[in-house]
Every structure is written in structure tokens, then in C-alpha cells.
Amino acid sequence: MVEKDSILKEKLKQSGIFNFKELYEFAFNWFMDENYDLNEKKYSEKVAGDTKELEIEWEGHKKISDYFKFVLKANWKITGLKKVKVKKGDKEVTMDSGVIEIRFECVLHKDYESRWENTATLKFLRGVYDRYIIRNRIDQYEGKLIGEFTDLINQFKAFLAIEGK
User: Is residue 95 assigned to a domain?
Assistant: First the structure.
């Protein structure tokens, strides 16, 4: 069984005007640029009058080695989404208005192919291997994963021009 270490969690929330289509494309492109295989596990849309409610679950995987894999999760919840007209300079532009909340989590998967799960002896050896032999490598990968996670959060904040909570 894969050993999963949840490293960090963070939440961003903003109420106001934004461009959902551009945000979605921006986020998708970030995952592609960073070589993550992105899996959209859920996309649900509920329409009530002139507003929508969206729920999106993303899980991005990046193979680091035969033993390690980075996983970044983003769970989006957008409520009260509706089209509004905004004046930008001399032009009138259609944007989106609503409340957007995105919960992020980064996870380090160890032995993601379950090669050390065949016998009790192998499970024991994996524990020794993780704790004593490759502890420094695990710490390095956790640091690298935290760096990528922080970059993702900062990119979202910059795009939305907000401060995270």
C-alpha cells in the first residue's frame, strides 16, 4: 500500500470579480508547465436562476523516482458565480462575480507502486529504509515539494491579487 505523507494544506478565499475561464486555464497550464499529470476527479455545476455553483477536484501527480511521487490537490468551490459587465478603461468587459474558495494540499507518496508490500519482512525493511537509510532524501524531496506547493499558492494569489487565509 502506498505510504502517503500529507505535508502542507492551505486555503485561499476571495469574494469579488474575477475571470473564471482565465483562472481555470491559468491553473491548468501551471500543472502542465510543472510536468504534473492532472486528473480532474470531479466537475459539478449547479445552476439556480442566473447564478451557478461549481465544485472541482483536481489531483496532480509527478513521478520523481521509482519510489517517490509528488501529489498536489486542489479542491475548488465557487458559489454565486454570475456574469457581470465591468468597465476597463473605455471598454466594457464581461467578467465573473462570486465567492471562490480553493483548498490545496501537497502529499508525498512513498512506494507508490507497492513493491515493498508483498511480505511482512518487506514492510519492516521499508520502515527501516525510510527512517534510517534515505531519511535525508525524504527531507530533500519534502523541501522540494513544499517549494513547488508554495509556488502554486503564490501564483494563484498573484493571479487573483489576494492575500491567502
Answer: yes
